[in-house]
Automatic annotation (TrEMBL), chain A:
InterPro entries assigned: AHP1-5/YPD1, HPT_dom_sf, Sig_transdc_His_kin_Hpt_dom
One Gene Ontology CC term in the entry: nucleus
Record keyword Acetylation present: yes
Record-listed Phosphohistidine modification sites: H80
Main location: cytoplasm
HPt domain sequence ranges: 39-144
Keywords: Acetylation, Cytokinin signaling pathway, Cytoplasm, Nucleus, Phosphoprotein, Two-component regulatory system
Organism: Quercus suber (Cork oak)
Domain notes from UniProt: Histidine-containing phosphotransfer domain (HPt) contains an active histidine that mediates the phosphotransfer.
Location of this chain's protein in the cell: Cytoplasm, Cytosol; Nucleus
CDD domains to which the protein is assigned, alphabetical: HPT (cd00088)
Protein name: Histidine-containing phosphotransfer protein
Lineage: Eukaryota, Viridiplantae, Streptophyta, Embryophyta, Tracheophyta
Automatic annotation (TrEMBL), chain B:
Positions of region (Disordered): 1-26
InterPro entries xref list: CheY-like_superfamily (IPR011006), Sig_transdc_resp-reg_receiver (IPR001789), ST_Response_Regulator (IPR052048)
Gene responsible for this protein: ARR24_3
Protein name: Two-component response regulator 24
GO biological process terms held by the UniProt record: phosphorelay signal transduction system
Top-level division of the source organism's lineage: Eukaryota
Start and end residues of each Response regulatory domain: 36-151
PANTHER family membership: HISTIDINE KINASE RESPONSE REGULATOR AND TRANSCRIPTION FACTOR RR-A-TYPE FAMILY-RELATED (PTHR43228:SF17), TWO-COMPONENT RESPONSE REGULATOR (PTHR43228)
Length: 146, 152
């Protein structure tokens, strides 16, 4: 099996794994369909925006929860945006945690919010690693094809 | 569902599916008339994805971050076949934006969109002049019928 075929197989297997484990859902495939000759780096570009936005949102949530008087509406607004972006790229686990997080905001339960934020930070970092691996494989495939 | 993965190569050439299912049909679909759209969303990810999806169907699409920017654009004379507005915008919210756009006489189809579907938000948006209200993500299943409707 040549290098290219091997890499492509790794890519397919990793994508299938991410789908099977629920890290990604159908929406990620929609993103891949939007990638073509005119926008060959579309998925990586959008995911890069997702990484930047997510890190800002997670920081904002953390800071909001550290305030003496917590503004749960403000925290909820950050969760709302995070749910929107994660749903849009197909980040299913992250999206589902946002749903849970929102319930805790509505209940104004600080302890549960803090716990949920930690889970969210963890899931996000795992997803980030997984996607960065996927993009590294793509870069190798491109290099092998030259 | 799982089998679809085999049809997507790393270089994004997913249009060659032999299944001829809805997804590959969605790739060939394109609007017939000259359609324009405006995406109003404070999130960069959603702006990028919604814009790309609409453009993939041949809809000339712009995106702005705030309701105020959308209103300003329309006040300057820009017209759009379709306007997609996020519910929770930072200053003037989605319904407020829709209301102002309608007040300016815009006949565009307005689609309210949100991260968390809520009946009260839906009511508010429709009362403000939106034609419909959906939960993210924006999908081909939502967009294609809208485009067909606007084409006719």
């Amino acid at each position: 099996m040549d290098v290219m075929t091997q890499l492509q197989r790794q890519w397919r297997e990793h994508t299938a794994y991410l789908r099977k484990e629920g890290y990604l859902d159908d929406q990620f495939e929609q993103l891949q369909k939007l990638q073509d000759e005119n926008s060959p780096d579309f998925v990586a570009e959008v995911v890069s925006i997702f990484f930047d936005d997510s890190e800002k949102l997670l920081n904002n949530m953390a800071r909001a929860l550290e305030q003496k008087v917590v503004d749960f509406k403000q925290v909820d607004a950050h969760v709302h945006q995070f749910k929107g972006s994660s749903a849009s790229i197909g980040a299913m686990r992250v999206k589902n945690l946002c749903i849970e997080f929102r319930n805790h905001c509505e209940a104004q339960s600080l302890e549960e919010c803090v716990r949920c934020l930690r889970k969210l930070q963890y899931e996000y970092s795992v997803l980030k690693n997984q996607l960065e691996y996927l993009f590294r494989l793509e870069q190798q495939i491109r290099a092998a094809g030259v | 569902m799982g089998a679809a993965v085999d049809h997507v190569t790393p270089m994004g050439m997913s249009g060659g599916s032999a299944e001829g299912n809805d997804k590959s049909e969605g790739q060939r679909f394109s609007c017939k008339s000259k359609l324009t759209a405006l995406v109003v969303d404070n999130g960069g990810v959603c702006r990028a994805i919604q814009t790309a999806l609409l453009r993939s169907y041949g809809v000339e699409t712009e995106a702005v971050e705030t309701g105020e920017a959308a209103v300003e654009l329309i006040a300057s004379g820009a017209t759009f076949s379709l306007i997609i507005i996020e519910m929770l915008l930072p200053f003037m919210n989605g319904p407020g934006t829709a209301k102002q756009i309608r007040a300016m006489g815009a006949q565009s189809k307005i689609l309210g969109i949100t991260a968390f579907f809520d009946r009260r938000d839906r009511q508010e948006f429709l009362a403000a002049g939106a034609d419909d209200f959906i939960e993210k993500p924006l999908s081909p299943e939502i967009v294609i019928p809208i485009i067909r409707e606007l084409d006719n």
